[in-house]
Amino acid sequence: MTDGSEFNPFEVSAEVTQEAEQNLTDTLGPDETYRVLRRKILCRSPVELPPVCLAYGETDDLESRHRTLRHPKWWLWLAGIVVIGCLVALGVEIRHSTRPGIPWDLVLMAIVLVAIVAATRRWVWWNGFDLLEITWYVGPRYRWWLKLQKSIGRILVAVLVVVSAVSLFVVPSMWRILPGAVLTLLLGAPLTDHECPLQILNFRKGVFEVGGHRKRFYEVVNGIQRHF
User: What torsion do the CA atoms of 83, 84, 90, 94 make, to the nearest 10 degrees?
Assistant: First the structure.
């Protein structure tokens, strides 16, 4: 070592030691609102994370972001599996029915099941999820990266539309797949929320486990020095 001290191959770095100590108490105390670990953030709702960029660890020229994250409750997963299973079973039964004519009783059952799901959709939206109100901060570098992503997305959409339009005159069969391809792209693009990299990993005993932050955010929040 350059400082003349004796090298110890079994010495554990401060970063590893601090993370190990935090992981040993992988839960929040009664007075804590959040705790930042390397792989996840433990928090209760509502929570405001420290004024540090979630991606690059910057502390200047920050802008806040806010979202309501949703985590499906256990019974919603079970209900979804049951409904999908029933619809698949009814579809198979209708498709392979040996009775003459259309099996209207099975068709009616499928319609009623879909109607129940549609009628309870709004109730499920408000009662079938654990909600996390969370606020975080982003710095100038990450905001620039978000703008770049959006610009690239718009360019890709424009290129796809132009190329597809030109291909229609060369490959007539493109007429069959173009509407579906363009519609899927236009509808799917807005569903990707690049502004919010956070996602709920788990929820237990009133504490959310959230992932999506980067290592530099963890280091700055916990006061850990980077080693190169």
Answer: 150
